[in-house]
UniProtKB/TrEMBL annotation:
Residues 117-331 form the Endonuclease/exonuclease/phosphatase domain. This is Endonuclease/exonuclease/phosphatase family protein. Signal peptide: none annotated. GO terms for molecular function: endonuclease activity; exonuclease activity. The chain crosses the membrane at residues 12-35, 41-63, 68-85.
Amino acid sequence: MGRGLRLRGLDPVFFISHLIFLGLSYTIYLAPHIAPSTFPYFGFVPIVYPLIVLANFALIIFLFWRRAPYAILFLFLSVGLYFPLNKTYQFFGKKVETAPDFKIVSLNGQYLREPGFVNFFNQEKADVVVLQEVYWRNEKFENLKDSAFADYYHEKHSLIQVFSKYPIIEFKKIFSGEDNTVGLAAYADLDLGKDTIRLINVYLEPMFIDKKLVKETVSDMETAEANSIVLKNKLTKGFLQHESQIKKLLPYINGSKHPVILAGDLNAVPNSYEYQQIIYWLKDAYVEVGKSSGTSFHDFKYPLRLDYIFSSDEFLPTRYEVRKDVKLSDHYPVIGYFKLP
């Protein structure tokens, strides 16, 4: 081996450590296929995956300083790490020339705490709106319903709401807070005139993680270990609850005799088990036509993509937006445009 490629001093340790780290990074391809009931800790990989990729490229930059040929080797070996990222950071979505004839907005409304909902929905004029964390027995909701959705059909299931310009011919709850959970899902079959479509509104179990807990875990060394255990327990419990809820949800997707659009707050990131179970059957509109960052939850300094719009093959996605200029809650609205079947 030439002098430029010879490993010296601690270089072999660094080389082997980086190789092991790179191998662990590729478990992102395995994580979506491992059920939480089999091994719940795989659920952590998709959450921290962007940080893993950043760390890997920081190591490559360091290698360029130490041994450029090996840096080029690791850069080549890291190419596969990009593809899972495009489910959150997609800047090259397809350009679709077809004009859309259906618009859907999904938003976790955080109990309508902030003003501005009426103005936003009056401006959007969507065909369908699905809301999560919006309760219907209060004055704020009644004002929203009477002002922005006066001409819409409406169905509700506790904290999830469906508003549609098309008649709702069937509405059914899918799951609703069983076994001390708060996750919810329901479907509404919409009569489009020439066809019927199934709209599913989903709010998977929240993880109940607040900013204070995360901040103390990162910044306070005295409580970091105890807080890390709390975080781990909350997340693993949530993963297991999601698995149960997804199993209840899937028959209403793969057993539907109508084309399906599913939207809502999954409380799960891309490349997760929950996400993978859905994209076995439906397309992610953001991956198809998104052209910006897809992160939708902004309450933490570490942004996450938790809100989605999926559709069956009969629909043609034409545009997807994450409205980061609209801060009505701790989630941004996500908007999908489609050509109907």
